[in-house]
Design a protein that fits this description.
By secondary structure, the protein is mainly α. The chain has nine helices and no strands.
């Protein structure tokens, strides 16, 4: 069993980076000062939609991390990882839909920022969907092949967690970030996504 565990640990470490994306969107910034009502209600709508998805992402991340501490069989690792990636793909898609539904925030270039963020979220969702397909295709009968396959997925995951959430940062810069940081649901979304980062 030793073949899968160190690799799955690498997977879990790479996965924890993914939570940063949610924190970026959930306004985990130190914002103070008044924001106008229009922007406040936009932030409230987005934050309330993000909160359950952040919990889903955190739960998926925990499931993979639990597999690293258990001496799990390759079949179990594959099943858990596959479900986790599916949940993450669904969650990012739902967050993208929430940002789209909320409309453009009432700030300079709000429509462009919103559009870019939605595209980025959908791209992340697609990437997690692709990872799920890859996990599903791994051969659990051959220990060495399975470990190699997981290693490849961990590398992609690492790249994904470090790659662009620039559009999200752009969206929640300035007044939008301020408005989001004042929403209780955004504070709890960022806490559930990544207790250390919040």
């Amino acid at each position: 069993m030793e073949g899968t565990n160190p690799v799955n640990k690498k997977l879990a470490a790479a996965l924890s980076g993914g939570a940063v994306l949610v924190v970026a969107l959930s306004g985990c910034t130190s914002g103070s000062g008044a924001v106008d009502d229009k922007l406040g209600s936009w932030a409230k709508q987005v934050c309330e939609s993000v909160q359950p998805q952040a919990k889903k992402i955190a739960a998926a991340s925990s499931a993979i991390q639990k597999e690293t501490s258990d001496n799990s069989a390759p079949e179990q690792v594959r099943e858990t990882d596959s479900q986790a990636f599916r949940d993450m793909a669904d969650a990012y898609e739902a967050i993208g839909a929430a940002v789209e539904r909320a409309g453009a925030p009432d700030v300079d270039n709000g429509a462009t920022k919103q559009k870019n963020a939605v595209k980025e979220l959908n791209d992340i969702s697609t990437a997690y969907g692709d990872l799920q397909k890859q996990v599903d295709g791994l051969d659990t009968k051959d220990q060495a092949k399975f470990a190699d396959g997981l290693k490849g997925i961990a590398t992609k995951l690492d790249t994904l967690s470090q790659s662009g959430n620039d559009a999200l940062k752009e969206l929640e810069a300035g007044d939008v970030g301020k408005a989001m940081s004042q929403q209780a649901s955004c504070k709890s979304a960022s806490a559930s996504a990544s207790p250390t980062a919040a």
